[in-house]
């Protein structure tokens, strides 16, 4: 740090003046330089890392660098309100946000201030935005499904409560839609949701909130919004604030889902403020501790053991890739921190395969232990079937003379692929997914035209719900197939197929 002699003498004079009040002088500092949302402050020898400081004009700052002679502070307000020589006071507190049920249905900033014009947030408690993740002994393995209501995900890449599953893909591949559908699908399931928007346009966030309102979801959702025009420090703390809000509910024994949309922009904001704080840049100019940044955030998502209340935080971080490159720095970091990833592909998206989930690259490392038995029974071979289909698809392009076995794989694969298409904002119940996959598994759709697949499945579900209600109820209750139930359902589907074909004059 360059300090000119004039400043030094002024500072020394200031120190001498305060000599008698030595204790106080440790708590009050002077701004040496300010700009780009970052200030350097002299004289706060006892300042703690992450401590909140008060600048004039009610601007707050957070201590990020502890240097020998000064501290580096990121400003959580406008830097134009601060000038060199201003006095800075310690608060002896780290940055905290309001938590509790008063935040339900609200849209707040990363400091927990309201953004929705619904008046002040009512709260009785605040929590520090940073905290050490729960230890091994307080945790329990994942055992309850977090239903996304999306056929391709619940069947092949199941997510369990307390899991961290990354949603990764290029821009405009439906990443946000998957997260929002999952939030919509938690309605009535007792899972509170926190959606953290980082560096997005206010208009995008407004349309998401509008959609959640329309679907009646705002009685269990909190939105934390640090938009693209906000300063880097506010973007940087947004996911930590969201996590603190979620933790309060988890510790009360509740299940929480938190979405970080997206951590690529979060990484960029952290890079910006690290460079401004003159930390040395590393790979892709990111600071060396960027891995630690995301790992300490995502480690806080977990399932607690019953002794600690049994609550959980399921985290769905989102990462945007460039041209599908998952081997870039931030994507590889977050892939290795999470328990699996849902990989979305532009080609599939433009082909109309939506959600554009690449079933080969997508994995869920812990979720299958949380899957219900019935889903395991119908979906266990799905991934292999699809892989097989795609492999044969490339052969099919070369020749027309295919043996009957290959032809069968191709027709079945095409039908399954079609059946896994699903519009956004329309998650479906787990049992409906199971029944659809059951019908696919036993080949009831293999002789249909491709465009008939989804209408058939929709009508089938409706028909079974009236004509075979007993079987559906039994399946909902037992959550598994036994021989009797399997036969009953097969008979039902065969009956419906006759009705369906007759209606269409076939
Ligand atoms: P960005 O990179 O801009 O954040 P994103 O990857 O989050 O984009 P979305 O905003 O979720 O993508 O979706 C992009 C567009 O695709 C939206 O217009 C959305 O309505 C549409 N879309 C997403 N999923 C589906 C789907 N399953 N079926 C049809 N359309 C979809
Ligand atoms: Mg998005």
Q: CATH-wise, what's the superfamily of the largest domain?
A: P-loop containing nucleotide triphosphate hydrolases
- Count, helices: 17
Which geometry do the CA atoms define? Answer: elongated
Q: Largest sheet, if any?
A: 8 strands, mixed
The total domain count is 3
Secondary structure class reads alpha/beta
CATH topology of the largest domain: Rossmann fold
Per DSSP E runs of 2 or more residues, the count of β-strands stands at: 16
Order of strands across the widest beta sheet?
8-12-11-13-14-10-15-16
What is bound: which ligands? adenosine-5'-triphosphate, magnesium ion
The share of residues in helices is: 25-40%
Please supply descriptive tags for the structure shown above.
506 residues, alpha/beta, Elongation Factor Tu (Ef-tu), domain 3, Rossmann fold, Lysin, 8-stranded mixed sheet, 6-stranded antiparallel barrel, 17 helices, 18% strand, elongated, binds adenosine-5'-triphosphate, binds magnesium ion
Plain-language structure description:
With 506 residues, the chain is α/β, with parallel strands linked by helices. It folds into three domains: 5-94, Elongation Factor Tu (Ef-tu), domain 3 (Beta Barrel), CATH 2.40.30; 98-371, Rossmann fold, CATH 3.40.50; 378-503, Lysin, CATH 1.20.150.20. It contains 17 helices and 16 strands. It has helices spanning 5-17, 22-27, 151-156, 175-184, 202-214, 232-251, 263-276, 290-298, 329-337, 346-351, 373-379, 382-396, 404-419, 430-441, 453-467, 469-478, 483-503; strands at residues 28-35, 38-42, 51-54, 60-66, 70-75, 87-94, 96-99, 107-108, 125-128, 166-169, 191-198, 221-226, 255-261, 312-320, 340-344, 363-364. β11 (191-198), α5 (202-214) and β12 form a beta-alpha-beta unit. α12 (382-396) packs across α13 and α15 crosses α16 (469-478).
């Amino acid at each position: 740090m360059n300090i000119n002699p004039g400043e030094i003498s002024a500072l020394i004079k200031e120190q001498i003046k305060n000599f008698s009040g030595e204790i106080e002088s440790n708590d009050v500092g002077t701004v040496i330089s300010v700009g780009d949302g970052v200030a350097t402050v002299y004289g706060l020898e006892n300042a703690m890392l992450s401590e909140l400081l008060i600048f004039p004009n009610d601007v707050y700052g957070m201590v990020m660098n502890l240097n020998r002679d000064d501290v580096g502070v990121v400003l959580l307000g406008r830097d134009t309100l601060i000038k060199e020589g201003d006095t800075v006071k310690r608060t002896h507190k780290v940055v905290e946000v309001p938590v509790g049920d008063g935040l339900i249905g609200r849209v707040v900033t990363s400091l927990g201030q309201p953004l929705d014009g619904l008046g002040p947030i009512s709260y009785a408690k605040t929590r520090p935005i940073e905290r050490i993740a729960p230890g091994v002994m307080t945790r329990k393995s994942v055992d309850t499904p977090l239903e996304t209501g999306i056929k391709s995900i619940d069947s092949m890449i199941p997510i369990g409560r307390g899991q961290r599953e990354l949603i990764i893909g290029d821009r405009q591949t439906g990443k946000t839609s998957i997260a929002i559908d999952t939030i919509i699908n938690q309605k009535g399931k007792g899972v509170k949701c926190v959606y953290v928007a980082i560096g997005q346009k206010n208009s995008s966030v407004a349309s998401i909130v509008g959609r959640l309102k329309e679907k009646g979801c705002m009685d269990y959702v909190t939105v934390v919004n640090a938009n693209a025009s906000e300063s880097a420090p506010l973007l940087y703390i947004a996911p930590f604030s969201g996590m603190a809000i979620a933790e309060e509910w988890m510790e009360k024994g509740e299940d929480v889902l938190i979405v970080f949309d997206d951590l690529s922009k979060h990484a960029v904001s952290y890079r910006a403020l690290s460079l401004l704080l003159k930390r040395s840049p590393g790979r892709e100019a990111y600071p060396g501790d960027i891995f630690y940044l995301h790992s300490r955030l995502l480690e806080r998502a977990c399932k607690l053991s019953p002794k600690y209340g049994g609550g959980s935080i399921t985290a769905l971080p989102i990462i945007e890739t460039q041209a599908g490159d998952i081997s870039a720095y931030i994507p590889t970091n977050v892939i290795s921190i999470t328990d699996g990833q849902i990989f979305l592909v532009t080609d599939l998206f433009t082909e109309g395969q939506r959600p554009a989930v690449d079933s080969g690259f997508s994995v869920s490392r812990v979720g299958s232990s949380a899957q219900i038995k019935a889903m395991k029974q119908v979906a266990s071979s799905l991934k292999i079937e699809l892989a097989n289909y795609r492999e044969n698809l490339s052969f099919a392009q070369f020749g027309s003379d295919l043996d009957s076995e290959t032809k069968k794989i191709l027709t079945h694969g095409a039908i399954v692929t079609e059946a896994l298409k699903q519009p956004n904002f329309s998650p479906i119940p787990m049992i409906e997914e199971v029944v659809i996959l059951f019908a696919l598994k036993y080949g009831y759709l293999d002789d249909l035209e491709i465009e008939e697949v989804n209408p058939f499945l929709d009508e089938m579900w409706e028909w079974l719900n009236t004509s075979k209600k007993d079987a559906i109820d039994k399946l909902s209750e037992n959550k598994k197939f036994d021989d009797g139930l399997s036969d009953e359902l097969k008979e039902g589907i065969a009956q419906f197929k006759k009705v369906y074909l007759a209606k269409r004059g076939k």
